[in-house]
Amino acid sequence: MKTNEVLKNIRIQNNLSQNEMAQKLFVTRQAVSRWENGETTPDIETLKEISKIFDVSVNTLLGSPRKLICQCCGMPLDDDGFISREPDGDFNESYCKWCYTDGEFVYKSLDDILDFLAEHMSNENFPPEKAREYFAGIIPKLEHWNRKET
Length: 150
Known about the structure:
This protein is mostly helical. The chain has eight helices and four strands; from the N terminus they run αααααββββααα.
């Protein structure tokens, strides 16, 4: 979906007129109209405000141009409900809500995440040792496990 369609859908789902949406965002009704007609796009600060007010990620507002994956476990973040949040409620589009919760990382080491994945992603055709070996080839390449501690 394009940004203009996403914005219009958000307004309609919230039973708002263009004028009411404009008031919530401290912009003009004409600005909302131009967004919905695809003539313009909200600036980044307005997108952040829309994200907060309507509980939708900026990536979704922009029509999901990036395919988000958790940079800790590799899970696709194709639903806003999977995306983690900062303690202030803002989306953190780098992590899933299971790896990063309340401003803290759940898995403290690479072994912790590999143990979890081996246990929970294995089955009769994909035994734990194979699951661990598979994920050990992927997980260390993710941003979280390659960042420099400060």
